[in-house]
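## retry 2 of 3
previous attempt timed out at serialization; input unchanged, resubmitting
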Amino acid sequence: MRALIVDKTDSGITAGIETISEDRLPTGEAGDKMVTVAVNYTTVNYKDGLCMTGGGALVRDYPHVPGIDFAGTVEASDDPRYSPGDEVVLTGWRVGEIWWGGYADKARVKGDWLVPLPKGLTQRQAMAVGTAGLTSMLSVMALEGHGLTPGGRPVLVTGASGGVGSVAVAILAKLGYEVAAVTGRPEWETYLKSLGASTIVARGDIAAPPKRPLGRETYSGAIDAVGGSMLAHALTLIQYGGSVAAVGLAGGPAIEGVTVLPFILRGVNLLGIDSVMQPREARLSAWSRIAEDLPLGLLDAMIEEKTLADVPALGTAILEGKIRGRIVVDMAK
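## retry succeeded, writing output
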């Protein structure tokens, strides 16, 4: 079987495709119900870029197979919930980080980590969604749970041209929200409007730390995929009782320039969104909403299809902010 092997040598981190034996796949511990999956599609996320380059200290043991998402067909199963031929999806659970992941023809994981392929989605579409889209849907659900409804002020989406942002824009627009999409690339404005963005916000207008602890109430809520000073700035612009779903840290983990005033004077909620360790029932609910609320025609328009051989270069590109929309890796090519 083919696998993208990341290794650590005296000269640094290397990543390349090798042919390896299937018996090198993880076997789990006593009592684990393991499932072997023929991987048909995978994708490229920001974490994948970190795992392929040694960033973030996510990979603990080398050699390693990254790939935090995959969709495929069950080949063998110790778990009674899955049988050979079943179509399944995996996102999260530190797969691709501390457990061998989806950048290989086959993967072996715990059955608890899998979900059935959602009805209405193909495996290819599920990987166009992937961790990024699941995170977007969890963010929308969290905002709704804290009172967000269509018809009010716009919802701000930062990092809008990336994976999380693109899916968030499309979902929010379909649900009837006015969406303000933040991007630093003017050439991608047409793309964002095609997904449903009502207005485009230049990254420079919101990227710097806020000059005042409270700005004008401009947005009913926000999905922030950037973090850092952009998250701090966004918090100052949320209306009374509104919420911000925080999902990323490409702009840094520190919320530079934030004060407690948005929270204690406007009742703004900062909602942390984690998709990695989400319980199974929450995942199933989110995937069901994705199949219902994500316009599949727009999803297909986000896809750039690649091969496993392209993945190492894509890992570098996504860390540099050069990937638009969603990458789908067709393992048959």
